[in-house]
Automatic annotation (TrEMBL):
The keyword Nucleotide-binding does not apply. Pfam families: Aminotran_1_2. This is 2-aminoadipate transaminase. It comes from the Bacteria. The lineage of its organism: Bacteria, Bacillati, Actinomycetota, Actinomycetes, Micromonosporales. GO terms for molecular function: pyridoxal phosphate binding; transaminase activity. InterPro entries: Aminotransferase_I/II_large, Class-I_PLP-dep_aminotransf, PyrdxlP-dep_Trfase, PyrdxlP-dep_Trfase_major, PyrdxlP-dep_Trfase_small. It comes from Asanoa hainanensis. The keyword Transferase applies.
Length: 393
């Protein structure tokens, strides 16, 4: 067989490359990038990393620079469990360390999904989750969502029709891509439905700590740890240079995810765990989060002002209370994917809306990330976006 493409597994042949395209634009010269959900590098705790590495790494090298247990360093899991308990009010029964949030999703897929299994997601939702579920040949069905997050009535409809789903994936806080914040009432309704139907909920809390006001709503996992597994990441709240995340869930499920990890990367990096533990035990995370919230609130204000100034009344966008993203909707005949080459010419990047929907059936929407661009860059970038979309300068 001469054509390598013909040798691809079915699950690989249909996979998209949107995530690779987004990551390829990191630090792209001459481009104002609204595409990736990258944290602001200006607030990375560089001095802390330098100080702790200089003063403590020598003695910690046997742990920080060595392989770790598959479930994570015991001391880091203890510090992580204490922080989760303080933040969410519930101590995890089962907790493991992962190589970022996306690996936790992969482990859940590898452990729970057989080809053809049904998975429910918000629509739109994180395209990496859609890719993960599709990569394990699941049937991904959408549930309606609005400015208050996933609609419980739509979830109930989905549960009443078709095969019973294996799981529901939801981002309750400052959702990717819309920025929606799931209301407290809906949180209670969703976990009640999950219990009634025996549905496992996968809760992604990547942006939970990044509300502009610092306000929290109860996590789904804290409301129903018996039917929710929580996926978290330090990439958004600390830095993504070390891939570090977690999965918190029942003591019966987490050991299965640990076994699945033995067949992937075997263990998360010790250096990142050691750094994150040092950060937690030094009590530095609260101050880091305060800096992050202030920075992202300022950048959203710049994005909101720029969109208002440069886009006409035929455009609308979500108004997030935290996180990294806003979701822009244009006229019905707008094709945001077709405009990508022109966007590069005028020096901006965004992500078209279609990949955020399981059926890729929307063309007049796009996601804008404001997290990694300065207010001045946002002002210029929104001006260019207005020119691109034909709304004037």
């Amino acid at each position: 067989m001469s054509n390598l493409d013909l040798r691809l597994a079915r699950r690989a042949a249909g996979s998209g490359d949107e995530l690779s395209a987004i990551l390829s634009l990191v630090n792209a010269p001459g481009l104002i990038t609204f595409s990736g959900g990258f944290p602001a590098h200006e607030i990375f705790p560089v001095e802390f990393v330098r100080e702790v590495a200089d003063k403590e790494l020598g003695g910690a090298a046997p742990v920080a620079l060595q392989y770790t247990p598959t479930e994570g360093l015991a001391s880091f899991r203890d510090a992580l469990a204490s922080w989760i308990t303080s933040s969410q009010g519930v101590a995890p029964d089962g907790l493991m360390v992962t190589s970022g949030g996306i690996e936790a999703l992969q482990l859940i897929c590898r452990t729970l999904l057989d080809p053809g299994d049904r998975v429910l997601v918000e629509s739109p939702t994180y395209l990496g989750a859609i890719t993960a579920f599709s990569g394990f040949e699941a049937k991904v069905d959408s549930v309606r969502a609005d400015r208050d997050g996933l609609d419980p009535a739509s979830l109930e409809e989905a549960l009443a029709t078709g095969p019973a789903p294996k799981l529901l994936y939801v981002i309750p806080d400052f959702q990717n891509p819309t920025g929606a914040w799931l209301s407290t009432q809906r949180r209670h309704e969703i976990v009640a439905l999950a219990r009634r139907h025996g549905l496992l909920v996968v809760e992604d809390v990547a942006y939970r700590e990044l509300g502009f006001t610092g306000e929290h709503r109860p996590s789904l996992w804290s409301l129903a740890p018996d039917v929710v597994v929580q996926v978290g990441t330090f990439s958004k709240i600390l830095f993504p240079g070390v891939r570090l995340g977690w999965a918190a869930g029942s003591a019966t499920l987490i050991p299965h995810l640990v076994r699945a990890k033995q067949n992937s990367d075997q263990c998360a990096g010790g250096f990142g765990q050691w750094l994150a533990e040092s950060f937690l035990r030094a009590g530095r995370l609260d101050a880091q989060l305060d800096r992050a919230r202030a920075a992202y609130a300022e950048r959203w204000a710049a994005m909101s002002a720029g969109l208002t100034k440069h886009l006409g009344p035929e455009f609308s966008w979500s108004e997030p209370g935290g996180g990294f993203f806003t979701w822009l909707t244009g006229p019905a005949d707008l094709d945001t994917a077709a405009l990508l080459p022109r966007a590069r010419e005028v020096g901006i990047a965004y992500v078209p809306g279609a990949p955020f929907h399981p059926r890729r059936d929307t063309h007049n929407r796009l996601r804008l990330a404001f997290s990694a661009t300065t207010p001045d860059e946002i002002a210029e970038g929104t001006r260019r976006l207005g020119l691109l979309l034909g709304a004037g300068a």
